[in-house]
Write a structure and sequence with these properties.
The complex is a heterodimer of chains A (about 110) and B (about 110). Helices cover about 0% and strands about 45% of the residues of chain A. With about 110 residues, chain A is mostly beta strands. Chain A has a five-stranded mixed sheet, with no helix packed on it. Chain B is built from no helices and eleven strands. In chain B, β4 and β5 form a beta hairpin. The chains are: A mainly beta (about 110), B mainly beta (about 110).
Chain lengths: ~110, ~110
């Protein structure tokens, strides 16, 4: 699996967009980029995932560079409730993969009033 | 749907004791897994199952046993608890091993004295 690199921490002002970067320079063609977050003491929560194209859902947007070596998770209007650890994970899809998701250290996002 | 339910929420054990952490899901998910999370660290995969009767090891399986006799339940057994197993344990499930959108339980905080 491709290794991911994330900054250990970031701050964001409430109401502003939070842009969380992830580097995955060794990503393979069949590997997806997944984002999860973990609010203090709770189980992780799925946010979004993508392969090549940019993706958007009700929680966030995912921007993947054309060479797929990096991506950015965007929370368009961060609130205090978005304070959490955000995990970027790269994993191959397909039935040959047994579904193991490996979580790293993630980025601690602090949203400030 | 209740989602993924873990019991108990808190447990204190003495070294050498055995216990079972319970995990149940009511979403008819084929894939279930167990993670542990130590303070300040990401999640590490212990064991996983791609369907009833099928289990496999993750990153840190030593000291833990699992079984999957039904689709709904995936208990994690500590045969002889050790202080190194003090951690927060999360159970997760998803539709099948091709889908990486995991649903997590709220966790079990285990202390081994």
């Amino acid at each position: 699996d491709a290794k991911t690199t994330q900054p250990p921490s970031m701050d964001c002002a409430e109401g502003r967009a939070a842009n969380l970067p992830c580097n995955h320079s060794t990503i393979s063609g069949n590997e997806y980029v997944y984002w999860y977050r973990q609010i203090h003491s709770q189980g992780p929560q799925y946010i979004i995932h993508g392969l090549k194209n940019n993706e958007t859902n009700e929680m966030a947007s995912l921007i993947i560079t054309e060479d797929r070596k990096s991506s950015t998770l965007i929370l368009p209007h961060a609130t205090l409730r978005d304070t959490a650890v955000y995990y970027c994970i790269v994993r191959a899809g397909g039935s040959g993969n047994t579904g193991k998701l490996i979580f790293g250290q993630g980025t601690t996002l602090q949203v400030k009033p | 749907n209740a989602g993924v339910t873990q019991t108990p929420k808190f447990q204190v054990l003495k070294t050498g004791q055995s216990m079972t952490l319970q995990c149940a899901q009511d979403m008819n998910h084929e894939y279930m897994s167990w993670y542990r999370q130590d303070p300040g660290m990401g999640l590490r995969l212990i064991h996983y199952s791609v369907g009833a009767g099928i289990t496999d090891q993750g990153e840190v399986p030593n000291g833990y046993n699992v079984s999957r006799s039904t689709t709904e339940d995936f208990p994690l057994r500590l045969l002889s608890a050790a202080p190194s197993q003090t951690s927060v344990y999360f159970c997760a499930s998803t539709i099948n091993n091709r889908v990486k959108k995991l649903f997590f339980g709220s966790g079990t905080q285990l202390s081994v004295l």
